[in-house]
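PROTEIN DESIGN WORKSHEET
SECTION A - STRUCTURE
LENGTH: 149
TOKENS:
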């Protein structure tokens, strides 16, 4: 039998959760095997130590603890409702503004006019969304050194 199975069976034996045949098996191990007897003593000491741990006194009653927990739960629910309401309001405003003709909703209207700088007054190609100036780059490209041969 593996050590893990032995450990589990010994633990169940201490808790009184074994069958009659398992109880006989464990008692036989305890009478013949010293390693099982040592493991049994360690588990027994651990169990007794856990039962003797002092419980710290509480400063407040369980009712006040429950009230504090419920307040926090209510606070998170209120925040969720607020954020949900804000998201819903934004969706409704976006839908209404898209339905109005000619962007006549003044609050959400984006400015259509911009001032043109001299660089922007140059004609752009109407059929190409992107123009690249090959003979006049936007920034100077440094020359690389030629490696000696």
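SECTION B - SEQUENCE
RESIDUE ASSIGNMENT:
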């Amino acid at each position: 039998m593996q050590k893990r199975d032995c450990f589990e069976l010994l633990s169940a034996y201490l808790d009184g959760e074994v069958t009659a045949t398992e109880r006989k098996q464990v008692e036989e191990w305890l009478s013949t095997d010293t390693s099982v007897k040592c493991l049994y003593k360690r588990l027994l000491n651990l169990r007794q130590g856990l039962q003797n741990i002092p419980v710290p006194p509480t400063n407040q009653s369980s009712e006040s603890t429950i009230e504090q927990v419920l307040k926090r739960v209510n606070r998170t629910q209120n925040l969720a409702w607020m954020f949900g309401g804000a998201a819903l309001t934004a969706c409704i405003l976006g839908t209404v503004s898209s339905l109005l003709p000619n962007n006549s909703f003044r609050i959400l209207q984006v400015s259509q006019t911009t001032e043109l700088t001299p660089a922007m007054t140059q004609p752009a190609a109407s059929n190409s969304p992107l123009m690249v100036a090959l003979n006049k780059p936007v920034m100077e490209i440094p020359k690389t050194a030629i490696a000696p041969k």
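SECTION C - NOTES
The helical segments are 3-15, 20-32, 34-51, 62-99.
Residues 62-99 form the longest helix (38 residues).
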